[in-house]
Amino acid sequence: MPGPVFLEGDRVTLRPIEEADIGFLQEQVNDPRIWRAIGRSRPVNREQEREFFENDVCGDDTVVLLIVAESTPVGTVGLHSFDWEAGRAELGYWIAPEHHERGYGSEAAERVVAYAFDQLGLHRIEARVFEFNEPSRRLLDSVGFTQEGVHRDVEFIDGEYQDAYWYGLLENEWRQT
């Protein structure tokens, strides 16, 4: 799954997602440890993942990158829901379970946040995480995000409604860290 590096970190590189990566993406988003955390409750077949690739990854309204560590794909990170007038977008990410707790997600999020503020000229980045996803909440805290609010009972996961916590990071806050 080779591809050009778009953003480089100390331990991860972020590169464009290619068609050859569809199998990796489909396998991971069907893992319960991933689909629960991202609020996706239905299985994804290859054609649906290809649709995601063609519509979201290849679209002009998102920036979605593959996180690679030591030549191995470990997850995705990206920006979506852009509001160019307000200068904001939403950050999204996931890390394959066998690569959790290694700091790959934090480093990837930090690189994308820097890109968003330095290259895209955004003023604000938002993120949301389900109440049960403590590792993701810690990731956002480590990058400098502030919890701003709660959407109560926003998703039905594992037989019960889950709250989603909303986080925000302003450019001036990020530059002060």
Please give the structural blueprint.
Blueprint: E1 7-8, E2 13-16, H1 22-29, H2 32-35, H3 46-57, E3 63-69, E4 72-83, E5 88-95, H4 104-118, E6 124-130, H5 134-143, E7 146-157, E8 160-170, H6 171-176
Parallel strand pairs: 5-6
Antiparallel strand pairs: 1-2, 2-3, 3-4, 4-5, 6-8, 7-8
What features would you describe in this structure?
The protein has 177 residues and is of the alpha+beta class. It has a domain at 7-124: 3-Layer(aba) Sandwich (Aminopeptidase), CATH 3.40.630. It is 31% helix and 36% strand. The protein is built from six helices and eight strands, in the order ββαααβββαβαββα. Strands 1-2-3-4-5-6-8-7 form an eight-stranded mixed β-sheet, sandwiched between helices. Helix 1 packs across helix 3 (46-57) and helix 4 packs across helix 5 (134-143). It is globular and about 40 Å long. The mean pLDDT is 92. InterPro entries: Acyl_CoA_acyltransferase, GNAT_dom, Ribosomal_N-acetyltransferase. It comes from Natrinema soli. Pfam families: Acetyltransf_3. One of its GO terms (molecular function) is acyltransferase activity. Residues 12-172 form the N-acetyltransferase domain.
